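Please check this today:
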Amino acid sequence: MHKLFYVLLLAIIPISCSKTDKPSGKSSQNNGYARHAKGFDIDLTDSLTKIWVNNPFEPTAKGLVYTLYPDSIRSIDPNSIQIPVKRVVCMSSTHVGFIGALGADSAIVGISGINYVNNPRLWERVVNGQIAEVGYDQSLNYELITSLKPDVVFVYGVSAESLLFIDKLKELGLKVVMVSDYMETSPLGRTEWIKFFGAFLGKNELADSIFSTVEANYTKLTQSVEQVDGKPKVFLNLPFRDIWYFPGVDNYLVKLISDAGGSYVFPELAGSRSHPVSTEVAYKAGLSCDVWLNPGTVNTLSDIANSDNRFSKFKAFKNARVYNNNKRMGQGGGNDFWESGVVHPDFILRDLIKIFHPTLLPNDSLYFYKLLE
């Protein structure tokens, strides 16, 4: 998943938002619109919409508030955003996933990391030159972004270093909107950010409907494994430069594993971020794991064995229970797991239940995952 802007939500972005005095970034008038997401909330009125975005790194710090006005109302606030937005630039494939799910693909005029696009409709527009590659990091093409005349640039941030990019975008008069869906530890919390995008695109009702359907499906699936006997031990990933990275127990993927009736191999790893684990420690753990998920970009068991023959001794490898999440690859190489997967954790959960407890879903086929042979 390609991310280009890493900016603390603590940052002040006066061109498109302002600071709110509420510690959580929410207002006392807030309707509790977000039920699972911790990073944002929305207050809807007849004349305007206010969106509060929390600082995910310091929950007690001041957050950001965006004020959205419909086209029918002329706002005198230069920092407000007119909705629905009709031209947007996306700095992450997850943004593309949310916007695509809302049927607003035509609003996207620029993408960072265009080869990561999976959506067939968007890819056709990419091929036809209707969507521009805006660059990334040091090679961000500011002149091109400005020429696209976006109503909003959706960005993604995790470090103060990227404030340089944000400052430059502000200097150019662009309205920047911070999106921190990746900070959510709950799969449904991440999905609920579709309401965030729905507010900007004028598709609140559709966003609510999509989320409610996903929420109901997800809840029903979790209930189906509550009384299951036995939880397979689940191993993850492949090493990078002799270091294996495993997510903490608060990570959304670990939550999915748990909700699907699996047992995570490293329950002692705290938080949601990835932890470096030596190959020796990971190798020892892998020997006894029942299922192995997400082994990099490989497509066959031979690919794994060729990278390090020791991995062929893993229990999951020997029992042919290695699955990768790259079943749905786009023409340009984009993986749909990172695009529409954020909108449909219920599809991911169904896959994992099928993998962990195949007798519960005997007639279902895998959607995002595939068995490596």
Q: What stands out?
A: Residues 204-224 form the longest helix (21 residues).
